[in-house]
Amino acid sequence: MIGGARTFGHFARQLEAERIEAAPIVITILADPERYLDEPLAPAWRTIGMVNSLSDAARTQLVRSPRRSLYLAQLAAAIADGLPEAYPRVLRLQSAADAWKAISNAHRFASRYDAALSALDIADVRIANEPALAYDRAILAVARAITLSEMNRLGEALQVADGAREIFAEYQDARQIAQCDLVTGMTLHTLGRVVEARQAYMRVIPSARAAGDLHTVAAAYNNLGRAAADAGDLNASVDALQQARAIFRELDMPTETSRATWSIGVAELTASRFGSAISILTEARRQFLKLGMPEEAGLTGVDLIEALLATNARAAARDLAGTIVDEFRRAGLNERALQALSYLRETADVATPAVAHHVGAYLRRLKEEPALFFIEPGPQR
Amino acid sequence: MPLGISWRCWECFAERDWTIVSRVLTEDWEGVASANAPELASTILGFHALSDRWIQITHSFPVDRSTILARYTVSRNRPAMSVHFPSEPGHAEQEFAATYEEHYDLLVGIAVERFGISHADAETLVHEIFFDFLVHVDRIRDRRAWLIGAVYNASKDHLRRAQRVEPLPEHGPDTVDPRYARVAEQWPAELAAREAFARITPRCQLALRLRYIEGHTIPSIAKILDTTKQYAAKLVSRCLELAHRRYGGRKES
């Protein structure tokens, strides 16, 4: 007999089968996703399994290549918007909203925030009239809150994250609640409301742990460490960052592990524990170089120079500055960055740690404002 | 009245909701056995089957004015899908079916008793919730809590929407919706247009949908597709021409 529970069970199996069928196709598409945007779609690709697999692939490609992620998500959206009507309407609309969210993510990762919001608007419209899709609307709200937060529209971001949190609380979904608290914490942190930010991060940890979401636990510890450092609570900062690093290691996430190591080094440096800072920052820099991340390696190196100057190891500081200049040049990084680093190398014999700190702060700002001029520090330094 | 079907029924077809169509077929139309209803509903709604067969089927239904969607009363029939099912159910399938069995009555009961939603609407909401559950099942840890949260949210939303809708009078005139007055003639054209649209490239589908279905401006399309305004304008115009060619069945030069 067809109907009821058995029908839904069968349908679950069909979706699973579609995803299995889609997997090898998506692997082929991954090689050159843009090409497939300009070829007519094979009818066999018009399945929800294909849309889900492409949207998932778009998510995994975000960090590696936002552009490739965008192409995959566009392909997913084109298929989703034209799915056969034999599928239940809610499923068609849900998968279309998910594909448009993937488009939004790709734009956000490439800092195209207006486009990211437009894509979220489209996703929202897809499911706006579906009472059963409140959960999906809340997921879109979290994406919107993150985007608004990155756009510095912090008040709006807090409001949207609160609304989503309320919905997830009704679903008792600890994992999503943790995501909302994480966004809230990051937004409060940017607003300079460090005490509230720390409270929000603290809320994330038990929820995410209960949900088995170790990545979010690690992110919360990492941010908690940074917030504690900003509040001048350096011991708490190092403790939290060490927790984050341990989890990132366990999750086999070398980039995040190295970033956490770097943050621990910076906290030690701020706490004037220079010996420890030097050894930790040296290790972080070594890891970044091994991972082929010259920019991060360079920035870590500048922090290391600050620690070396603080211990009067001037020759080592000068040599390191020269090495970083070479690395930046080889990597074809910003000329202005080279100018700032060259200044550091030339003044290493007389510079105070504050000069290195000034150069480091300039290099970090340069990532946001590539046209920013380097101004030498004043005589007080 | 075209094909002897009231316009409200046409509305239900226009919505192409297999749940409703399947139920209408089972409960209101004589001669359609309940076991065949889901398959028939899907045949009607199926993208690849939206063709002459659709017209044939609808022509053959002995429908009168009393069998309209607004009046259907829901029995314990549950909707079904018209997918091709393999004969041996798998573990995930059994698990999902068990979750459904365990919670279905509870969820419908909440919607009906706590929110005063009609049984028919409650069942539709719960079915839709189960479809969404299916999408998110991998990340749900407490299924019961999730499903109950979902039915609370959906019921509240349903009631909010219902307040904005004025019900049709019980014995009011049941006139033909002018949009469907010439549906039999329009349908082939619509099918051809859909077919033409399906055969253009995904990039073109996105561009044309954004421009002509969702009303985005060229600068907005350029932003969403991450391209220049000039290219977006050219893309929309080229894709429109391509769709016209496909629609007309002419070969590309």
Layout: helices, strands, pairs:
The complex is a heterodimer of chains A (381) and B (253).
Chain A: H1 4-31, H2 33-37, H3 48-61, H4 66-81, H5 89-109, H6 113-127, H7 134-150, H8 154-170, H9 174-190, H10 194-210, H11 214-230, H12 234-250, H13 254-270, H14 274-290, H15 294-310, H16 314-330, H17 335-347, H18 353-368
Helix pairs in contact in A: 1-3, 3-4, 3-5, 4-5, 5-6, 5-7, 6-7, 7-8, 7-9, 8-9, 9-10, 9-11, 10-11, 11-12, 11-13, 12-13, 13-14, 13-15, 14-15, 15-16, 15-18, 16-17, 17-18
Chain B: H1 7-15, H2 18-28, H3 37-45, H4 52-60, H5 91-114, H6 119-136, H7 143-163, H8 183-198, H9 202-213, H10 218-225, H11 229-248
Describe the overall structure:
Chain A is 78% helix and 0% strand. With 381 residues, chain A is mainly α. Chain A folds into 3 domains: 20-127; 130-224, Tetratricopeptide repeat domain (Serine Threonine Protein Phosphatase 5, Tetratricopeptide repeat, Alpha Horseshoe), CATH 1.25.40; 273-381, no CATH class. The termini of chain A are far apart. Chain B is mostly helical and 253 residues long. Chain B has 3 domains: 2-71, no CATH class; 91-163; 185-248, Orthogonal Bundle (Arc Repressor Mutant, subunit A), CATH 1.10.10.10. Chain B has 11 helices and no strands. Chain B has helices spanning 7-15, 18-28, 37-45, 52-60, 91-114, 119-136, 143-163, 183-198, 202-213, 218-225, 229-248. Chain B is extended, with a radius of gyration of 22 Å. Residues 1-20, 26-35 and 37-89 of chain B have low confidence and may be disordered. At the A-B interface, helix 1, helix 4, helix 5, helix 6 and helix 7 of A face helix 3, helix 5, helix 6, helix 7 and helix 9 of B.
The major beta sheet of chain A can be summarized as: none
Mean pLDDT reading of chain A: 91
Listing every helix as H and every strand as E from the N terminus to the C terminus, the arrangement of chain B reads HHHHHHHHHHH
Give the biggest sheet of chain B: none
Q: Give the SSE order of chain A as H and E letters.
A: HHHHHHHHHHHHHHHHHH
Provide the low-confidence segments of chain A as ranges. Answer: none
Structural class of chain A: mainly alpha
Low-confidence stretches of chain B: 1-20, 26-35, 37-89
Q: What is the oligomeric state here?
A: heterodimer
**What is the tally of beta strands of chain A?**
0
- Structural class by helix and strand composition of chain B: mainly alpha
Secondary structure tally, helices of chain B: 11
As a whole number of angstroms, the C-alpha radius of gyration of chain A is: 24 Å
Count of separate structural domains of chain A: 3
Radius of gyration of chain B: 22 Å
